[in-house]
Amino acid sequence: MNQHDLVRYKVFTRRSLLFGGLQLAMLSALGGRLYYLQVVQGDRYKMLAEENRINLRLLPPPRGRILDRNGVPVALNRQNYRVVLVSEQTPDVEHTLDALAQIVPIDADERKRIQRDIGRKRSFVPVTVCEHLDWNQVATIAVNSPELAGVSIDVGELRHYPYGPMLAHVIGYVAMVSEDELTGDPLLELPGFRIGKNGIEKTHDLELRGRAGNSYVEVNAHGRVIRELEREDGQPGSDVTLSIDLGLQQFVSDRLGTESAAAVVMDVTNGEILAIASTPSYDPNAFNQGLSRTQWQELVGNPRHPLINKAISGQYPPGSTFKLVVALAALESGVVTESHRVWCPGHMTLGNRRFHCWKRGGHGHLTMVEAIAQSCDVYFYDLSLKVGIDRIAAMANRLGLGSTLALDLPGEHAGLIPNRDWKMATRGRAWHKGETLNAGIGQGYVLATPLQLVTMTAQMVNGGRRIHPHLTIGIGQTAEEGLDPGNGLGLSSASLAVIRRGMDEVVNGRHGTAGGAKIEEPGMEMGGKTGTSQVRRISKSERDSGVIKNEDKPWEERDHALFVGFAPVDAPRYAVAIVVEHGGGGSKAAAPIARDVLIETQRRDPSRRAAPLAEAPERDSRSEG
Amino acid sequence: MASLRGWGFEREEISLLDKVKQLNFTLILLIVAIAAIGFAMLYSAANGDIDPWARRQMIRFAVGVGVMICVALVDIRVWLRGAYVIYGAALILLIAVEIIGEIGMGAQRWIDLGFFQLQPSELMKLALVIALARYFHALTLEDVRRPTVLIVPTLMVLTPAAMVLRQPDLGTAVMLMAGSGAVFFLAGVRMWKFAVVIGAGLAMIPVAWHVLEDYQKSRILTFLHPEADPLGAGYHILQSKIALGSGGVLGKGFLAGTQSHLNFLPEKQTDFIFTMLAEEFGLVGGLGLIGLYGLVLAYGFAIAVRSRNQFGRLLALGVTTTLFLYVFINIAMVTGLIPVVGVPLPLLSYGGTAMMTMLAGMGLIMGVYVHRDVMIRRHGAADDF
């Protein structure tokens, strides 16, 4: 090796050592990097790898059915074919939607909704594009699936209400989850998942909904399921059994017909509601499938308010039905006895105002039972002055008026029972005696719902036991107990007997206001109380020129017709409340409905006629009135 | 030392048998071991099937080993003599495919040789090392220190580097320049000159940025912020890191890599095969493979240092550096240390090109070993030894 080469060799050797050291350092850096990723960060990446690999799929539980008291399904599930789109599986959402629009109708509004859903949901969550496909559409989409990336057909459940409008106000309906109803429960984010929006569907939504199952599946990078790793079965929704008797409900709702009316039939022994109808009604199935704008406008704009459940949300002046409360308050407070007599000349003067009786010629001398039977206004003017508004209000409250009754339906209204404090607090003025008179005949400020009226009546005839009105008698396998056992209202049976006798006379007495609605079938006789509540005040000039007959007034100015009743009269089992909006007089418009309903109620359940309440008081002879 | 043998000795030819005996069988064994790991991974990548990858890779490897041994047995002076011819041929091929590629809508950058596809840019990796080794072999240290003599070799590097950068193939361009840099360095070029070149290179970055294709820019941006776009450009590297990291110390087991087998890991049979290895065999497997490569590199160093001719030294270390660059760039890329530049892992990644380059390169290294005692004069490229 010559000198030059030796020099080069030395430089080469030195530099190659340096260079080798550099390479070793760089390879060590790779080793360090591996250590960092696999050991230091290993757990994090293990978790990420599992997240990649394992997808959680929700298995939506079938919604529980709703049954009537005899087990007839009144809400059930049907199959619903729908198109869903997984946004992360389609390269171009717009293009795919265009292609889909050739097969199924997607209007501009729908398209906006779909795009909003896609933006709102995680990209692997399927978004519903269109529902209720027919077989042709399903087949066309299946055939064209190669061109429709990310699109698939999904069989879902569709809630179906076989009896439509008849039970709409009770069952309510289900609809898509709105944004403010999202709770973070991923079940609610499933496409097409529906929750109860009204009625029993809403009250018992959680029980009906059940619990979602989970399926852990291994997926590949394209989202394709390789295998199921684990499955946790969910819990199907529980069936909910209602106290409603479907046949009776049908009868009641047919009987109300085209009137704007409400009716409630209750078992007085336990508060079970056998029928609760509000007419006109709507078809809850339409809500499921999505209402069009015009359909919605029609429902909202209808002057007879089909969407409102009048039986629990309608607040009416109870009219003469409230006289039962006044009478009970008078007896219970000891101000008078049932033998208290009043002379009715057809009117009563208080200060410089004259308060009229409905019977212009007057009733003459009346006892309490006679006054109830003939619904004498003057007698109850007198009584209410003697008892005073506060004691009347207290009795009303005791019987469940003036507050909601915790019925298992949403939308219950409280009505209104005025007293002195209430007036001062809300109007800032002192209570007038004249207002006591108006309240005494269930007019003025007093408001009550049909549900409150039937509960009031039931508690008056069941021996003064407090009952809790309810519709649900069973959820799944467990029975719901509605009765508060032994919780009395603290009313004396003597006072209650007077009230019952009065109600008996209303229907069965010679001069009773509801004599025309008498039940002739032996053992089925009903008692009750009519009520006619003015929608507007009768002016002096009208009274002077002769009161215009109801039938001659425009519909919305006519009186509301009310009737509360019970049967059988000697062993009360069922109570009923009827309100016919702008129906005219209670005796003509409401009492006959109550009669027919109570006959049907007892016919449908003859065994119950023989089940009287233990403490039912003796029935008086019919000599009075 | 070696000079005791005198000048006349090495003029004599070594017999073929002696050459075969001189082959470094331990090195061959290491190479076979690395390749065998590759076959196993390709078998796993195909979900436990020898097709479509493992079988073809084995056939290629068998051919490649033959080529390697042939190259090793060729007299080192043949390479010295033919260095510029080989370089020239590689450059012409590179220009040719560039022109063809331009005409053919940029689709093809290789020439089909049947059992594998010859990429001129791969050929250039070796040809450039051979040519530079010859160039510096002829220079004394004093010559090397003169800046003017560096003009020619610099052009020899930049011409093909510019060509592949235009393709665009950033990985190969980096490898050509870094590999040549190593030869420059080992030949004795002053350190400060590297500093100047690196400084100038850094200053050029803003200019270079405009030359880069969009996808290259996005790769670099993705490298800087991989989590910014986990489903887009950052997806590959993120999934690769997840696969690696989830392998842990001992790995998920052969054929049990979830990231690989469920296709979360892209390009698992080619550029990302190391990730798959590290997912299935963990840190132990990853370090083991790096260790094997390290041993091969160590052999390259040892062979280079033992060579008695400057051409052999530069050639051996130039090729060794090329192998190092392959390994380092690939693993650094899949572990997220550097941007994804599309450099395969030699002997493991499916594909004939890199394997052929590597095996031919290994043949050259072994040739240097076989001919380690051959003395070649500075100007002995011709018959005048």
| Percentage of residues in helical conformation of chain B | 55-70%
Shape by Cα distribution of chain A? elongated
Oligomer: heterodimer
Helix proportion of residues of chain A, in percent? 25-40%
Strand content of chain B: under 5%
Low-confidence stretches of chain B are 1-11, 381-385
Q: If you compute it from the alpha carbons, what radius of gyration of chain B comes out, rounded to the nearest whole angstrom?
A: 21 Å
CATH topology assignment of the largest domain in chain A = Beta-lactamase
Radius of gyration of chain A: 36 Å
Description:
The complex is a heterodimer of chains A (625) and B (385). With 625 residues, chain A is α+β, with helices and mostly antiparallel strands. Chain A has two domains: 56-242, Penicillin-binding protein 2a (Domain 2), CATH 3.90.1310; 246-591, DD-peptidase/beta-lactamase superfamily (Beta-lactamase), CATH 3.40.710. Chain A contains 22 helices and 21 strands. In chain A, strand 8 and strand 9 form a beta hairpin. Chain B has one domain (14-370). Chain B has 15 helices and two strands. The chains are: A alpha+beta (625), B mainly alpha (385). The interface between A and B is large, with 43 and 55 residues.
Reconstruct the topology from this structure.
The complex is a heterodimer of chains A (625) and B (385).
Chain A: H1 3-40, H2 42-53, E1 54-59, E2 66-67, E3 73-85, H3 93-101, H4 108-120, E4 127-130, H5 135-143, E5 151-160, H6 168-171, E6 174-176, E7 194-196, H7 199-203, H8 205-209, E8 213-219, E9 225-232, E10 240-242, H9 246-256, E11 261-267, E12 273-279, H10 284-288, H11 293-301, H12 310-313, H13 323-333, E13 342-344, E14 347-350, E15 353-356, E16 364-366, H14 368-374, H15 377-387, H16 389-398, H17 420-427, H18 433-440, H19 450-461, E17 472-475, E18 478-479, H20 493-508, E19 527-533, H21 540-544, E20 560-567, E21 574-580, H22 586-604
Parallel strand pairs in A: 2-10
Antiparallel strand pairs in A: 1-8, 2-3, 3-4, 3-5, 6-7, 8-9, 10-17, 11-12, 11-21, 13-16, 14-15, 17-18, 19-20, 20-21
Helix pairs in contact in A: 9-22, 13-15, 13-16, 13-20, 14-20, 15-18
Chain B: H1 16-22, H2 25-45, H3 54-73, H4 76-103, E1 111-112, E2 117-118, H5 120-137, H6 141-144, H7 151-166, H8 170-187, H9 191-211, H10 214-224, H11 235-247, H12 258-261, H13 273-306, H14 310-334, H15 352-370
Antiparallel strand pairs in B: 1-2
Helix pairs in contact in B: 2-3, 2-13, 3-15, 4-5, 4-7, 5-7, 5-8, 5-14, 5-15, 7-8, 8-14, 11-13, 13-14, 13-15, 14-15
